[in-house]
Write a structure and sequence with these properties.
The complex is a heterodimer of chains A (about 400) and B (about 325). By secondary structure, chain A is an alpha/beta fold. Chain A folds into 2 domains: about 25-145 and about 285-355, 3-Layer(aba) Sandwich (Rossmann fold); about 150-275 and about 360-385, Response regulator (Rossmann fold), CATH 3.40.50. Chain A is built from 13 helices and 15 strands. In chain A, strands 7, 8, 9, 10, 11, 12, 13, 14 and 15 form a 9-stranded mixed beta sheet that branches. In chain A, strands 2-3-1-4-5-6 form a 6-stranded mixed beta sheet, with helices on both faces. In chain A, β7 (about 165-170), α7 (about 175-190) and β8 form a beta-alpha-beta unit. In chain A, α12 (about 305-325) crosses α13 (about 330-335). Chain A is globular. The two termini of chain B are about 30 Å apart. With about 325 residues, chain B is an all-alpha fold. Helix content of chain B is about 75%, strand content about 0%. The longest helix of chain B is centred in the C-terminal third of the chain and has 27 residues, at about 205-230. Chain B is globular. Chain B has one domain (about 1-240). The chains are: A alpha/beta (about 400), B mainly alpha (about 325). At the A-B interface, α1, α2, β3, α3 and α4 of A face α1, α2, α10 and α12 of B.
């Protein structure tokens, strides 16, 4: 039996530690809380977000109209809505942040919706890609993309290339099913046929059986969606090994050839077609400046959709601060219809959906002069909204 | 006699409540985080009952936690937003799953048992993932709006109601468990933990008692899950994850298995250090946790609750 006094002292000590030091919020400091994974298997997201924001601040300074903008980072780990919610509570109540940002996973973003409604805090989502999120709170804005946004142009482009029979092959989880539904609806609307819709278990490592099935389905091409990382390597490898490429069955994807995975994919990725909103090789001066600043900040940093999502998120927050300072509803109103030139090309915050309207590029994996793989954009489908908004 | 019992049982638990109230007033800005600690304490207590008292090796307690969370969440969305009814539903669902799965998994022992507990959680995870229409799948079950507690206290933005609500539930759970541990069932569980063969020899239905303990603990885990669903107002697939079960077991080992206060302390210390380290350095905090665990396992194998005993041995007294 433990002595009550000792117990009390211990617990009091523990809780005292928990409170930490309460930082005084200066009147001219506007704080932005960023909730993202910084540890565990998804830590790369947090790093990419932080890189994007740091580069933006390096280029544009930390002051907006005499107000210092300060970013605070909090680690949510993986898809943990309860952690995300309590972090948001802490940021809003204790740190008194005026804006929130980050969010990789849909449940984490949905969990903070009731909070930001009450506190009227504009919250910029850098990635979480389910269309439904923005409908949950009028204070959500998004600078990432949705699967509908990139899958619909992919399907339309594929049809325009003369492809009529496509097999879809997606990982069996939320985003995969979204991609499948988006592709199928757009492809069928044009008159194409989805000859087989394969849902692969998320933990699949051997894709040869799926490749055989695709081959047997008589498809002209396969539309694939898998979470970035090892499954994607295995999937593209199986695509080559099973002879689909040799048989002339095209590959249609979205984020599979992301810059962070491209080197690991190796030459197996050459010639793969994807539709996406950002390639680090996008030919524009704004993108060049972004890439150079990123290399200056950290030579090993990789520019991809996550870092550019955060970069544009930081821009949106700066614009809102300039327009409305701490006034949440005013800031959101100012953000609606805001247009600017992003490293990814011209973008616009849709006044209705508060989602970013952007070009979607059809790309092919190619080798540059130094032998490095990159996504070469060769067709542009302009000003795509979130096609999933009214679903 | 009864008063003495009440004093022995009640005083430390009352202290827990008092310390909880002090924390409420001392850290008004951290209630969201503190509420998570309280809920996790209930969950770790349920594992303590299974692992520490019953001697049932488990890495799948999240199965019951998750079932409780989804049951309470679905109940709130479709039937009634009454929080207390939701708690009962969550606890009942957790106990039900524990009973049904316990009938099967408790036939096994050792590593086989461990594997089966993990398997149950994995199966439920996959069911929740597939039943997208009902559970929201990977997007999570949202749309939970709780009615005010006792029709009076709203679940507020800062988390005051949520915190006091969770604290009250924790204190009740603690009272229940302390009573259970000295009741015949608790003593039987200890006996089975020490030597199932001998307990069988003196006429104890070992299998039946283990299922009973597993079911009660499942109910508590379901209760914790239901609380989490109500306070967060969202349930994600993560509630069934292996990492949740494993992390809770780590907290228990840190504090000391087979002691109720071990679960309380282990959880508080693990989560506070986790929180502080993760705030100070979002990238490398896992090192701190790893080193802490190594230190505890090497130097105080009984967990933090064993510190006093170790010190006494160290300074020449009797252990």
């Amino acid at each position: 039996m433990i002595r009550p006094k000792l117990f009390m002292a211990l617990l009091a000590g523990v809780v005292l530690l928990a409170s930490g030091a309460v930082a005084p919020a200066g009147a001219d400091v506007i704080k932005v809380g960023v909730i993202a994974p910084f540890s565990g298997p998804f830590a790369i997201w947090g790093k990419q977000f932080q890189d994007g924001i740091t580069v933006y601040q390096a280029q544009h300074g930390t002051q907006v109209d005499g107000q210092t903008v300060e970013f605070l980072y909090r680690d949510s780990g993986g898809p943990n809505p309860d952690v995300a919610k309590s972090l948001a509570q802490e940021l809003l109540v204790r740190e008194r942040v005026d804006y929130l940002g980050g969010f990789v996973f849909t449940p984490n973003a949905l969990a903070v919706a009731p909070l930001i409604d009450q506190s009227q805090t504009p919250t910029v989502i850098f990635n979480a890609a389910t269309s439904a999120i923005n409908a949950r709170s009028p204070f959500f804005l998004r600078t990432g993309f949705t699967l509908w946004q990139v899958s619909v142009p992919m399907a339309q482009w594929a049809y325009d290339q003369g492809l009529r029979a496509v097999a879809t092959s997606v990982s069996d989880y939320g985003p995969g099913l979204d991609a499948e539904a988006a592709f199928a609806s757009a492809f069928q609307a044009r008159g194409g046929v989805v000859v087989d819709a394969i849902r692969m278990p998320l933990s699949s490592t051997d894709f040869a059986p799926f490749m055989q099935r695709i081959k047997a389905s008589g498809a002209d091409a396969v539309f694939g969606f898998l979470p970035a990382g090892p499954p994607t390597y295995a999937f593209t490898k199986a695509y080559n090994d099973a002879g689909l490429r040799a048989a002339g069955i095209g590959f249609l994807g979205t984020g599979e050839t992301d810059e962070t995975t491209l080197d690991a994919l190796g030459d197996a990725a050459l010639g793969l077609n994807t539709a996406y909103h950002y390639s680090a090789a996008h030919p524009s001066s704004v993108n060049k400046a972004f890439i150079n600043a990123l290399a200056l900040h950290d030579p090993r940093a990789v520019a991809n959709m996550a870092s550019v999502g955060a970069y544009d998120g930081a821009h949106l927050i700066y614009e809102m601060v300039a327009a409305a300072k701490r006034d949440g509803p005013g800031a959101v109103a100012a953000a609606k219809g805001l247009a600017w030139e992003s490293p990814r090309g011209p973008v616009l915050i849709d006044p209705e959906t508060r989602h970013i309207t952007q070009n979607v590029y059809i790309r092919v994996v190619d080798k540059d002069a130094t032998g490095r793989l990159f996504n070469r954009e060769f067709a542009t489908i302009e000003a795509q909204p979130d096609h999933g908004w009214n679903r | 006699m009864f008063e003495a019992w009440l004093g022995r049982m009640g005083a430390p638990v009352a202290l827990l409540g008092v310390v909880g109230l002090i924390a409420f007033f001392a850290f008004p800005y951290d209630l969201g985080f503190l509420t998570r600690i309280l809920i996790m304490m209930i969950f770790v207590l349920s594992i303590d009952l299974v692992l520490g008292y019953g001697g049932i090796a488990t890495l799948g307690q999240a199965a019951m936690y998750g079932t409780g969370a989804y049951a309470a969440g679905l109940f709130a969305v479709h039937i009634s937003a009454n929080p207390l009814l939701g708690l009962l539903i969550g606890a009942g669902a957790g106990a039900g799953v524990a009973f049904l799965s316990g009938l099967i998994v408790l036939r096994a022992h050792g590593l086989g048992l461990l594997m089966l507990t993990i398997a149950v959680a994995q199966i439920l995870h996959e069911i929740a993932n597939k039943a997208r229409v009902v559970t929201g799948g990977a997007d999570g079950l949202s749309g939970i709006r709780m009615a005010p507690l006792f029709g009076r206290w709203h679940f507020d933005f800062i988390g005051q109601t949520g915190y006091l609500y969770a604290l009250a539930v924790l204190v009740l759970v603690m009272v229940f468990l302390r009573a259970l541990c000295v009741a015949p069932l608790g003593l039987t569980a200890r006996g089975i933990h020490e030597s199932p063969v001998r307990m069988a020899a003196i006429g104890v239905p070992v299998y039946g008692r283990r299922v009973l303990i597993y079911t009660i603990a499942g109910g508590l885990a379901g209760l914790a899950g239901a609380l989490s669903a109500q306070v967060t107002a969202l349930v994600s697939l993560q509630v069934f994850s292996f990492s949740l079960s494993a992390e809770a077991v780590v907290m228990l080992i840190l504090g000391g298995t087979g002691r109720l206060w071990g679960a309380i302390f282990g959880t508080a210390i693990f989560m506070v250090i986790h929180h502080l380290a993760a705030t100070a350095d979002p990238y490398n905090w896992l090192f701190v946790i790893g080193i802490l665990l190594l230190g505890v396992v090497y130097f105080i194998p009984g967990g933090l609750m064993g510190v006093r005993q170790r010190l006494r041995i160290l300074f020449g007294g009797q252990g």
